[in-house]
Amino acid sequence: MKNKFENQENSSLLGRAIQQVRKAKGLTQEELGKRVGLPKSSISKIEKDLKHISFEDASLLMDAMGEK
Questions:
Q1: Are the beta carbons of 13 and 54 closer than 8 angstroms?
Q2: Which of 9, 19, 26, 38 is the most buried (most CB within 10 A)?
């Protein structure tokens, strides 16, 4: 049970980090989505922690925004 909670908490942190970087870069959810081949709704769900993502997927999103 602890691992599930930690994974959900990490996913939530990833979503918030993605949102912060996206906004700092002046990108819309739609623009970021186009860069990675996802609809705006998926980016929104990731940022709101309605869709959990892995560290690998978060890394792809960050790379698309020019971040490591």
A1: no
A2: 38
